[in-house]
Specification:
This protein has 261 residues and is an alpha/beta fold. 42% of the residues lie in helices and 17% in strands. The chain contains nine helices and eight strands. It has an eight-stranded mixed beta sheet, sandwiched between helices. Strand 4, helix 5 and strand 5 form a beta-alpha-beta unit. Helix 1 packs parallel to helix 8. The longest helix has 27 residues. The protein starts with a strand and ends with a helix. The model has no long low-confidence stretch (mean pLDDT 93).
Amino acid sequence: MTLRLAWFATARGTGSRGLFEGARDAIAAGRLDAELAVVFCNRERGQSANTDAFLDAVTAAGVPLVAISSGAWRKRVGGEVSLPAEAIAPWRHDFDRAVWEAIAPFSPNVGVLAGYMLIATRELCERLPLLNLHPAEPGGPVGAWQEVILALIEVGASTSGMMTQRATESLDRGPVVTSCRYPIRGGAWDALWDDRRGPASDEEPLFQAIRAAGVKREPLFLLASLQALAAGRIVMPVPDAQGPSLDLTAAVETALVAVPS
């Protein structure tokens, strides 16, 4: 099945651009049976340098771009920030309806949430199967990558990983589609664990090393996941019902060896 991708990103950090460019290059090289039908960003130009660089990359690739600032929308309607433990704020339903109306003319058949910092509402999840990239193993911590890494350090985890899920309104708890994992103990990792002091911090070397290990694997993992979906080796589960999932650890580690250092 040729995937017609609606690519969603907030592009708050630098990783979003790498994920997009990895998919773009794989499609151009014939390694992924897909089209980038449209990119949606919930930030507009001028909100951050990282987002602007992402938008520039999308424009340079000639991919249709829709940018609607969720922050500006919320302020305009006087809405509240949606917190993970609470119901999605009413304005978000209106926002997601506007998002769908803007991207629907491009006829996507799969959405990819790659660095997208909003929880999708049920309306959007039901209109388009959304594949959410989350930087933790199945059953692992929820939240942004910073929160995930801090949680892993606090519990003294021995592995980290990532997964794709069919997005639902439950933060990072949708049905798992694909996953991979990698060790963060043993070898050079042990010295980083031994040297740490006090509460987990995003400034400590261990945090930075875990992040670097994830960043190296994320584009490879997302590409392998999309390839598996396009080839029919895995299917999108129905919302809120876990079906078979695919472990891509071996494929990602093999691809990692081939990446120039």
